[in-house]
Amino acid sequence: xxxxxxxxxxxxxxxxxxxxxxxxxxxxxxxxxxxxxxxxxxxxxxxxxxxxxxxxxxxxxxxxxxxxxxxxxxxxxxxxxxxxxxxxxxxxxxxxxxxxxxxxxxxxxxxxxxxxxxxxxxxxxxxxxxxxxxxxxxxxxxxxxxxxxxxxxxxxxx
Length: 158
Description:
Elements: E1 2-3, E2 9-13, E3 20-25, E4 32-35, E5 40-43, E6 48-52, E7 59-64, E8 66-67, E9 70-71, E10 75-81, E11 84-89, E12 94-99, E13 105-110, H1 112-117, E14 128-134, E15 139-144, E16 151-153
Antiparallel strand pairs: 1-2, 2-3, 4-5, 5-6, 6-7, 8-9, 10-11, 11-12, 12-13, 14-15, 15-16
């Protein structure tokens, strides 16, 4: 499933052929999307994460994300891993680990050192902006806007 940022269209592709098989319309912006094997979870830049039906794209629930009781906005790229959703906070180097049922941030990592290694720490537009998880190796792939580097990171104690 591919989101459009502002057009409100989700494109559904066949994973074998990459053939477009369906379209879904939604309101708001499309910032991030992950699948936990049962539901899709979508961000729109706000503090809300929307659980969606993967077949109909209907909203099943809304999760309000809070960090120590304070609403956390700018949730961007998402990655579903077990009972958690990992999200980068747009225009920062933060990755937060969110309980996907309560919306509570349970842990956080500062990716500034990755920005340093990528040589992008002084560019305000070159923020951390991409996370993916490889279950077989328990490794996250992390990159950013305008970064030429993709990092393989194993997060322990996170």
